[in-house]
Amino acid sequence: MTQLVVSKQFTLPIRVYYEDTDAGGVVYHAGYLRFMERARTEWLRQLGFEQHYLMSALNIAFAVRSLSIEYLKPAKFDDHIEVTAAIKHLGRASIEFEQTVIRLNSQGDAELLITASVKVVCVQLDKFKSTAIPHEIRSLLA
């Protein structure tokens, strides 16, 4: 039987498109939130949990409860960036992630653009109340 190995850090490569930027070709501040959400969603998908499965079969979703973000340098149109997500703390009903956005240049050198701490809570969709993270997910993370 094959056992899934959970990486301590998930990395999602993204190309910055024109639609991600403002008139000056710089990523708008809220764009980074979308990039980080996408990384957390793809991380769950890699673990075998599609969003529609969480909503329909388990009646849950993960909602952002709090976040802290430091904007260090801007990403620009056509940049190749990597968005990371790593678990900082796993609670009964919440997960706190450390996330970064890094720009890669043509030589492969990395430049840190964003650091963030994002806390998500597992929510029952029918009641919009927090609930314990299901065992089938928690067992892969603990």
**CATH class group:** Alpha Beta
- Structural class per helix/strand content? alpha+beta
- Name of the CATH homologous superfamily: Hotdog Thioesterase
In terms of per-residue confidence, which ranges show pLDDT below 50 for 5 or more consecutive residues?
Answer: 1-6
Mean pLDDT metric: 93
- Per the CATH scheme, the topology name is Thiol Ester Dehydrase, Chain A
Helix content: 10-25%
The CATH architecture can be named as Roll
Q: Give Rg in angstroms.
A: 16 Å
Distance between the termini: 20 Å
Query: What is the ordering of alpha helices and beta strands?
Result: EHHEEEEEH
Features:
single chain, 142 residues, alpha+beta, Thiol Ester Dehydrase, Chain A, six-stranded antiparallel sheet, 3 helices, 22% helix, elongated, disordered N terminus
Secondary structure blueprint with pairings:
Elements: E1 9-15, H1 29-46, H2 51-56, E2 60-71, E3 80-90, E4 94-104, E5 110-124, E6 129-130, H3 135-141
What does this structure look like?
- The structure is a single chain.
- Strands 1, 2, 3, 4, 5 and 6 form a six-stranded antiparallel beta sheet that branches.
- Mean pLDDT is 93; it is low at 1-6.
- The protein is of the alpha+beta class and 142 residues long.
- The protein contains three helices and six strands.
- β5 and β6 form a beta hairpin.
- It has a single domain, classed as Hotdog Thioesterase (Thiol Ester Dehydrase, Chain A), CATH 3.10.129.
